[in-house]
Structure formats: C-alpha cells, structure tokens
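In the previous chapter we treated chains in isolation. Here, by contrast, the input contains two separate entities that must be folded as one system, with a combined length of 479 residues.
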Amino acid sequence: MSFFRRKRLFSILLGLIIMVGLIGYSLSDRDELSAVEEFFQDVFGWTQQAFLAPFNYITKVVDNIDGMINMYHENQVLKENLAQYQRVLYEVQELRNDNEELMALLKKTESIRDYTPIQASIIARSPEQWFKQVTINKGKQDGISQDMAVITADGMIGKIQSASQFTSSVLLLNGFDRSNRIAVTVMLTEDGGEAQGFIMGFNEEREQLILEFTEYYDEIPEGESVFSSGLGGIFPRGLEIGTIEEVTTDQYGLTQIAYVQPSADMENLNHVIVVDRTMVTDHTPDDTEDDDDKSEEED
Amino acid sequence: MSRIAPPLILLLLLILQGGVSLLIPASISEAGLIIVIHSVFLFLLLLVMFYDLEDTYYALFFAILSGLLIDIVYTSIIGVYMFSYAIITYFFHGMRKLLHANFYVALILMIIGVGLVDSLLYFIYQFIGVTNMGIADYLSHRLMPTLFVNLLVFLIFYLIFKRKLVKWSNDRFDPKRSTN
C-alpha cells in the first residue's frame, strides 16, 4: 500500500514537472509555432469551419431578420447621410489626386499608410476567456505572418499572435499588454499638431485602453480619435483605434495618460481584415549586416 | 464501437468548444461575467464514473490528450489544461471505489470536479500572470456562472451518454468485472 501511495505521489510530481516545463517552453520568446502546434491548429481550424457552417447560417438568418426590423428607420438616416458623403467623397478624391501628384513629384512611391488587405472570417474563440484570442481562417499560405494588424470596418481589433499554415490566432486589443505596444497619434485641433504616444495595455475595470503619451501636452481634446502612427514599424499609419475618454496622469503623476474607448466591438466579430503593411521597415533586404539580430521586434 | 466512440465524442466536443464560445451572447461578457463551458471535462467525468473500471485508466489517458489539445488549439500556453484535467480526473479515479455511481453522486462529483478544475486553472493562470483577477471577483464573476452553465450541460450529457457509456463499458470489458 505504501508503495502504491508513493507511486501516486511520484506520478503527480512528474505531472507537475512536465507542466512547468511546457509552460516555460510556451512562455519563452518564440517567433514561430512548432510544427506540431501548427498541425493541430490547422486540423482543428478546418473541421471547425465545417462544423460551424450551419451555425453561421442560422446566425446570419437571425441577423437578417433583425436587420429587416430596423430597415425603414435606418434607410431614412442613411439617405440623409448619403447626401453628405457625396460632398466628402469629391473632396477626398481631389485630395487623393493632389497627394499622388505631389508624391510623384517627390519620386516617393511607398508610404507607411499603404497596406494590402486580406479578408478573413472568425472560426473560433478561445473557450478560456482569459485568453483574448480568436482563430481566423487564413494563414501563412494566404500571406499572413506574425504581428500584422487586424481590423474591422469600425477600427482596429488586434494583431496576429501566431500564424499556422492555414489558420492563425488573433490577439484582441483587450488582451494587449506592455509587450505588444502600438505607436499612436492624436490630432491636436488647436495648432494642427500631433500628440505621439503608445497604447500600453488594457484596463479591465474601465474596459478601456491605456494610452501613454511620450511628452506632456497641455490641451488634449477628449473625444478625439486615436490612430496608429505607423512609427512602430509594424502597423500601417491611420488605422483607427478608438476615442479618448479621459486624460489624466499615471499613478506616480509623472506621465500623462489617457483612457481610450476602442471603436471596434470586440465581442461580436464575424469578418475581419488582416492588414499587410506594404512598406517593410524591419528587415529590409538592403541591410544584410544586422539581419540576424532582431533588435526591434515590437511596437 | 465501444472502443472508438469515447475518443470520437471527445474530439467532437473539443472542436465544438471553440464554436460554442462564439455563440455566448455579448451581453454576458459586457456584464463582466466569464463563462467557460468545460464540456470535455464533463465527458471525462462521465467516463471515469461509468466507463472505466478499477484498473483501467482510459479517462486519465484521454484527459491528458484532450487537455493538451485544448492548450495547443485554444490557448497560447501549453500544459495548464493538460495538468488540471489530468490531475482532477486521476483524483476522481481514485475516489470512485468509495462511491456508488448513481445520478446524485454524479451530480455532486460534477460540481466538485468542475469547481476544482476551474479554480486550479485560475490559480495557475494567476501565478503565470495571464489574469490578475482578485479571488473575490473570480468567485462571483467566473466560478458561479461557470458552475451553473456546466450543471445544465452536465444534465444533458448525463441523459444522452450515461446508458451508452455503461453499455460500451460492458461490451468492451468483461461484464463480471464491472462495478456497475
């Protein structure tokens, strides 16, 4: 009996050691998933898509009925908006032409605003909701790689955490922390200048993002939109992230921070766009010198 | 059938788990509640109670395997679900000879089991730093709703699988050895 009890204790301890080892392995800084992980994620992704097809169909039907109820009212509002948009559209067109001409004048063809969109659908969400993680149905074969930004029509929702061959997992904005910062800008209406800062994480209680400014700015208008600045080298410029709700200082009173309400709804996600920034600044083929050491990984 | 059905059902549940969490209404998470449906673990508990015998460890084996798959597919940290599922399944395997497998015992075991698994997950994730939820918040906002929803799922599972599992167990192992 005592031998049996010892065996039991031994196997529990062994399990504990294996767990700690595996956790350590997966917490270590890995650029790529191991082949085993990729394989299982792809296999599960495929089968999930097959199984979810009927579910998606039902939700679509329900959504359609939901949409029909509000149709009349929405139609009225939309008609009003449309008249306004027409005017804005002309303006944008003109500005875009101007911009292209000026760029051509400067012989500048690439901009950190440019990106290639990759359409994708959500196929699963982590049942463990502490991982703010969803799976999409596009992977490396479709041109997706780690750290790309993921957006919806409303704004940015997150970034690619890891990519397998045919699926990839997206880390949502509300799971961001200091290790995945976003460089952002805020327009200052007063003098037309910009305030620079970083999204440093997510405040669980307020359910808002924390923006840390790099300098101290006197007048930061509340309600102003926050955009990615593209200066981090990974996300393109001009992706909408949210609006400023409150400007204050951090707990030591040294840095100015703001709480940002994300503009995209992180709960009801269906179709997303993965943003492949055209202009790569991280590993250009020119600088072969420091190609091996990855000095700038994030932000 | 008796050999292949339990792992197949587990696999199906694993696949569905990711989809089902998409269907949880947004109003729940906006209210700050976290609901985790441990459907795989509930089936493992049924396996321990009605399929496994005293000296077979299929449930434990499946627990390790499916826990590992959950870790790989749904979380970015490997080992947490694997360990939690395995150790609680092992614990209940050890307890099974003390208890008669009837509905009420199964119900109580399920509540204890899911409670233990979920709080074990909480402590490990808390320790690694995945979550920084306080324990009071955890109890009221995650454990309670999770227990309640899992209770409903368990009732459904019990109705569907109980008889089949006993039958599969008898088919597979010598009926004389069976404790049911």
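Chain A touches chain B through 44 residues (CB under 8 Å). The domain at 182-262 of chain A is CATH 2.40.10.350 (Thrombin, subunit H). Compare these points with the single-chain example from earlier in the chapter.
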